[in-house]
Amino acid sequence: MSIDELNDYGRVQFVEKLGAVLEHSPWVAESAWELGPFVSKEDLHEKMMRIVRLSPAKRILKLFRAHPDLAARLVAGEYSSREQRDAGLDRLEPAEVEAFMSMNRTYTDKFGFPFIMAVRGKTKDEMLSAMGMRIEQDPETEWQEALAQIDRIAGFRLDDLIDESCVEERADRHA
């Protein structure tokens, strides 16, 4: 869809299209709809992330906790399932699954939410390494890192959903 099509949607249709961009948190899309129209995919992304960052800590924590553990065999959102599958996390050896599960437990016990990482383009070794390094961070630093990862994830998902080539073509015709 184009940003123009998205701008033409009513609230319900807008939330249907974008409600899953931030894991099980359609409230972000609902709030973003009120900030439209959007001039670009980047404008939409920035406004969605501003909504998240300005939310109360309890609401952000709920967003964090909506994310699945990496390599978990539990039901995850459509985007997360695909992203983890594309990263090969559905094809791990038993010892690798145990390593991820152990790191997930350690991380969640320390921070109170699952390890969040934009896995697109990452290998399983890079993910495990990042988990190991991030477990050592202090809670405030890791909170900010989790937000940064959600920002990256949302950017990837919006890139997949919104085609801005038609905006460029329209601009070229009017130039």
Which architecture per CATH? Orthogonal Bundle
Terminal CA distance: 23 Å
**CATH superfamily annotation:** Oxo-4-hydroxy-4-carboxy-5-ureidoimidazoline decarboxylase
**Helix and strand pattern:** HHHHHHHHHH
Computed Rg: 17 Å
Largest sheet: none
SS field, number of helical segments: 10
Helix percentage: 55-70%
Structural class: mainly alpha
Morphology call: globular
Q: Determine the mean pLDDT.
A: 88
Assigned CATH class: Mainly Alpha
Low-confidence stretches: 167-175
Catalytic activity: 5-hydroxy-2-oxo-4-ureido-2,5-dihydro-1H-imidazole-5-carboxylate + H(+) = (S)-allantoin + CO2
EC number: 4.1.1.97
Pfam families: OHCU_decarbox
Domain Oxo-4-hydroxy-4-carboxy-5-ureidoimidazoline decarboxylase: 10-159
Molecular structure report:
It catalyses: 5-hydroxy-2-oxo-4-ureido-2,5-dihydro-1H-imidazole-5-carboxylate + H(+) = (S)-allantoin + CO2. The protein has 175 residues and is mainly α. It has a single domain (3-174), classed as Oxo-4-hydroxy-4-carboxy-5-ureidoimidazoline decarboxylase (UraD-like, Orthogonal Bundle), CATH 1.10.3330. It has 10 helices and no strands. Helix 3 crosses helix 4 (41-53), helix 4 runs antiparallel to helix 9 and helix 7 packs parallel to helix 8. It is globular. The relative contact order is 0.15. The model is unreliable at 167-175 (pLDDT under 50).
